[in-house]
Amino acid sequence: MEELIRVTPDKEKARSILKMVEATLEMIRFIDKIKFPSNVAKEYYEIIRELISIILLLDGHKAIGEKAHKRQIEYLEANYKEFGQAEITLIDDLRITRNKIAYEGFFVKESYIDRKLTDILKVIEKLKRLIDKKLV
């Protein structure tokens, strides 16, 4: 797969990134989802992206370059069949939305978070369980 490089799996680095993910999850609880839905959407995407990067790291890979985030999602889809098409589509939709927020000044509506939050949290938990198995 293009734009993936081989790296030495590093459980300590993975644990450190996971600790930062947990801190971000805690921080999100204090963000007003009604007032700042774009920020919340961005943070949830970053959490999912970091969790996928941990999986790649533990598998001995790192995505680099302009399309690194897309490559991470493609890697997850190709190598972890426990993630269904709806979950992959959700992650990719979050990626696209995050890019619009970051590069185009796009604002998401509160309803976006309301509609997707349950599924986002399920994906996060599924990624964390997968990582926990790899860190044993």
Helix and strand layout, with pairings?
Layout: E1 4-6, H1 11-28, H2 37-58, E2 61-63, H3 68-79, H4 85-104, H5 110-135
Antiparallel strand pairs: 1-2
What does this structure look like?
- The protein has five helices and two strands, in the order E-H-H-E-H-H-H.
- It has 136 residues and is mainly alpha-helical.
- The protein has a single domain (4-135), classed as Four Helix Bundle (Hemerythrin (Met), subunit A).
- It has a two-stranded antiparallel ribbon.
- The two termini are 27 Å apart.
* CATH class designation: Mainly Alpha
The proportion of strand residues reads under 5%
Number of helices: 5
What structural category characterises the helix and strand content?
Answer: mainly alpha
Give average pLDDT, whole number. Answer: 96
Order of helices and strands: EHHEHHH
**Which residues sit in consecutive blocks of at least 5 with pLDDT less than 50?**
none
In CATH, the architecture is Up-down Bundle
Shape: globular
Briefly characterize the structure.
Helices cover 72% and strands 4% of the residues.
